[in-house]
Amino acid sequence: SEIRKKLIDAFTNNESEYLSGQKLADIAGCSRTAVWKQIEELRKEGFRFEAVRRKGYKIVSIPPDMTADKITLGLKTEKLGRNLHYHDSVESTQKIAYKLAYENAVEGTVVIAEEQTAGRGRMDRKWHSPKYTGIWMSMILRPKIPIPKAPQLTLITAVGVVQAIEAVTGLLPEIKWPNDIMINGKKITGILTELQAESDRIHSVIIGIGINVNSQEEDFPEEIRPIASSLAIETDRMIDREELIRAILEKLEKLYSLYLEKGFLPIKLMWESYAVSIGKQIIARTITGEIKGKATGITEDGVLLIEDSAGELHHIYSADIKIEG
Ligand code: BTX
């Protein structure tokens, strides 16, 4: 709209100045409410503003969109990300990767989007994926492994993402079994592993990775603010998403070849060194009920082991866990 254009001009021409609501209203020839609404809209599109009481607004940055070229520039992988599908806005990158996998896309194909309008988590939960703030990507793998071993890929991915975050930001994330990556007790990353299988053979594995990178508090809906954080919030600086994507693909490619060559054991050891839950009292909520006890480790297959107060050992295949201390 005309207001939008006038506001963007005003902000970019006065980059270092605070512009009051009234001044902006005068420039754009509209009400202060209309200015305020337009600024909210611009925020959703990826513009960043600093607001100071009594002084007004200052522009901090314009939408930092990626491109496929910017992502692959300098990428040191053989397979992962070599076939890259980049989108501005999609329902879910998982959905697109699924379709590509059916059409026999090469192993290592990656789908990335700036925004997901229907991003999904496990068990039909939602994954909030606002524009330009994160990395929302899905990856197609075709490992020749038996179906029960597929959950190991979630753990491999978690290790790769932790290593990449560590290398790019210096932060030391922790893994909460099976698929959450946490910093200071808040969720930074979710991983979703889905299978396409024919009878007992894996056709393809679609690994979805969602990372809150440059999200600010206001990008999260009210209900997840207490549990979610981003790399920018934790480091207090903006993180280069393209660099992080490259780091993830490079780390994952190494771990994946190690896994195919040597099996899960070396990965298991790395995973355990990043895991927060091991050795702690936890509550696991499964579909059939709650199990309380001490997390003693994971099995060769990535199954979580919990020892309850009676000394009985439970195998947990799928659950949400809460750490008690
Ligand atoms: P999950 O089921 O472990 O986590 C989902 C839960 O996490 C939600 O119910 C909500 O409480 C919380 N949540 C939602 N959005 C966020 C967020 N942005 N940050 C922190 N917490 C949040 C985790 O599932 C698996 C997520 C995978 C997402 C990727 S993104 C690319 C790919 N495409 C797609 O649709 N999903 C995957």
Structure, described:
This protein has nine helices and 14 strands. The strands form three sheets. It has a seven-stranded mixed beta sheet, sandwiched between helices. A five-stranded antiparallel beta sheet has the order 13-12-11-10-14, with no helix packed on it. With 325 residues, the protein is an alpha+beta fold. Helices cover 32% and strands 29% of the residues. β11 and β12 (304-307) form a beta hairpin. It folds into three domains: 2-61, Arc Repressor Mutant, subunit A (Orthogonal Bundle), CATH 1.10.10; 68-273, BirA Bifunctional Protein, domain 2, CATH 3.30.930; 277-323, SH3 type barrels (Roll), CATH 2.30.30.100. The radius of gyration is 22 Å and the shape is globular. The termini are far apart. The structure holds ligand BTX.
Tell me the total number of β-strands. Answer: 14
What is the terminal-to-terminal distance? 53 Å
Which ligands accompany this protein?
Answer: ligand BTX
Number of self-contained structural domains: 3
Which key phrases capture this entry?
32% helix; alpha+beta; BirA Bifunctional Protein, domain 2; 5-stranded antiparallel sheet; 325 residues; single chain; binds ligand BTX; 7-stranded mixed sheet; Arc Repressor Mutant, subunit A; SH3 type barrels
